[in-house]
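I hope you will forgive my troubling you with a question about protein structure. Could you please explain, in whatever detail you think fit, how the structure tokens follow from the sequence? Thank you for your consideration; the sequence and its tokens are set out here.
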Amino acid sequence: MLVNMNELLSVADENRFAVPAFNISSYAMFNGIMDISERKDAPVIIEIHPNELKHIGSDAVAAMVKRAQASTVPVVIHLDHGASFANVMAAIRAGFTSVMIDASALPFEENAALAKQVVEAAHAAISYTTCYDDADPRRAEVPDGDAWHYVPSAFNRYVSVEAELGNIGVTDADKAFGQVIHYTQPDEAVKFIEATGIDTLAIAIGTCHGLYPEGYVPELKLALLREIRAAIKDAGLTCYLVLHGGSNNPDDEIAEAARSGIAKINISSDIKVAYYRKMREVLAGNDLREPNEIEPPCIAAMQEVAAQKIDLFGTTGKAALYR
């Protein structure tokens, strides 16, 4: 069942569980995540970063869409950290049912303006192929020589939009681990949602992208999460909260976050570490060359980690809620 993020997370939010968003870097990884999700009867988000999409090739998205449509569980195909309006428009054309525009490094007003621009196009299921006027994507409707060119989304209906407010930081040594994290504030979250009309908001409450260095113990600000969720509800808004950097965090804190208002948790490093650690073991003997012999143990190792996350987030068996 192929759905957008609103359709997926409305159920998760109401029932206080989180849906894992697994970043996949190959079609084999995609199949592995789909298999384990169906086995666990769990809704799933297939998440692809622009760098991953460049590696896989956007033509592969059509095959992912076809499998998702035939799946027994609800599936979102989501663009992770779209860096530009062009990134997002390309994803909409390819068939993604949800997109993220990440302008969190920009000042609040510029972040909100770009998010609003994406929302206007995505909610109309329109993808622009040529951009002459960055201020207003609706110029596609103006029949003059400077109008935008546009095509319908391959999804053919409302594409949901995620944005980020705050800065969660990264753990890579070359990207300055230890940088100051800019935590999302409840009043700013409300202002941002009102200004943009986004469907999901990635918030900064103490996580980082990547794996934490040995000896470092992250701590999620769960009280801040509850304040943000309450402020959004009190303002009469509907916007689902997302936790980036979900890998390598204490299980008890992640589980509590899922019960406290986080409806989507991104997992990338944890499944990839398991996949490639097993691959190094498999290739240690130097006698294998066929992918169909090399990859199955790697997929199984990845699935073991994915299954643990599905259980931890409270997602196991929840596909039944969508039927």
